[in-house]
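re: that chain from earlier
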Amino acid sequence: MEKVWLKQYPSHIRQEVDIPDESLPEMLMQKVSEYEDHPALYFYGKKITYKELGMQAAGFAAALQQNHVVKGDRVAVMLPNCPQYVISYYGALQAGGIVTQVNPMLVGKELAHILTDSGAETIVILEPLLPVLQQIIDETAVKTVIKVKLDGQETEDGVTTGFSAFLQQAAGLPNPVQINPAEDIALLQYTGGTTGRSKGAMLTHRNLLANVIQMYEYFKDKITLGEDRYLTVIPLFHVFGMSACMNLSIYTGAMSIMLPKFELEEVLHTIKDLQPTTFPGVPTMYVAINSHPQAEKFGIDSIRICNSGSAPMPKELMRSFEKKTGAMILEGYGLSESSPVTHCNPLFSTRKPGSIGIGIPGTEYKIFDLEIGEKEQAPGEMGELVIRGPQVMKGYWNMPEETDLALQNGWLYTGDIASMDEDGYVYIVDRKKDLIIASGYNIYPRDVEEVMYEHEAIQEAVVVGIPDEYRGETVKAVVVLKEGTQCTEEELIAYCRENMAAYKVPRVIEFRKELPKTNVGKILRRAIRDESRK
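^ sequence. v structure.
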């Protein structure tokens, strides 16, 4: 299929981008020289300038080298959003290390897998999480533990080192490390393990820098260099937060307003007080804001870009949120294996609700058949979305067979079922593994969920397949009702019968007060499916 999506680009937005031959630490130092006195980070009333950030990252790099970290060593970071995260990340890279991002919500077994699989010998960890590490540290190669207290009141115990004390170990500037941006790994981004054992996507310096430049080029009409303010509440250990908040804000000389977690009242008051201009988020964050009875009174219209990722954005939620707040949501798409952004609805052309938009600059994509995975599908036909571009990973850490399955003939096979229209806009239908087959019919959960979200009483809905002796599988919906509303199972099933084909209608509806989610806010469909099949 001809690259029809390129026709959506205006002349001032480059369809291809030039990626400089530089590492992420070199990018940071370039921005330090351009914006040295500008605030880079804001954390509960304290500002850190670009100059200060550059100095502290260099100090952290030197301290790592003092502790025998050499090029290629893995440095694990297990922190919520805070300045120490950014300092550790860029300092580890400047020392030649490979950052291994770790979700602070992991339990001991999960943490042990990542630390042993990566071979990390150094970890930067939030002090209250030390008991989780201590349970499994003997199973790992970890030798150096650097602890962070968000209030800064760190104490020494002879086993762990406080972050501030560790920085003081630096003896001058770090030794220069020769980095090949196209080949050297900057990051191990572990996937959620939805297809089995969690895998570490190997992202190079070039992958990560390319994605930042791609995003900048795509959104530059709404970016003011050196002046923007990013609301950084989506976790930085998540690849979307890392790229769309931390790295992009640094690349554009912006100030990152950091919050450790999403708490609705705190987020709304932060928006009111600091007037961020960019708010990367996930649908559940927008659901929470949209459900607040006074959301429009918090000045959310200061935000020029609400770019939504990580999970599908229900069309009804998008319409309601934009009507209430005046802000614009741009739904996009990405995955850990692509640094992560590959698609987004454009500011400069038609925005199509329900679509993930078109490819960002330098990104090629096609829809291949589901059977063999080599035949390109015609517009409107379902298939697997495949991607090619400078942001696509090098492969999976120590997993050559998994790498060969994901990367074939230069294309990244996403595992997502999608279709593409005549204009090149992509519509994600579902994960291949989430497809429900009932009485021979293919049922895509998102089709059912979109209809359910249009019901006035439903706040959240997730659809899964459960075993059925006659149909093979049947459809179950798990829903959360809006506060103050009532609805019965019979009423919802009747509503679905009026609004979708009979074979798609849920046969079982379960009401819950909340749905299980990742700490990013993504609904855990697999957990619900597993619970429902017991």
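The chain has 15 helices and 26 strands.
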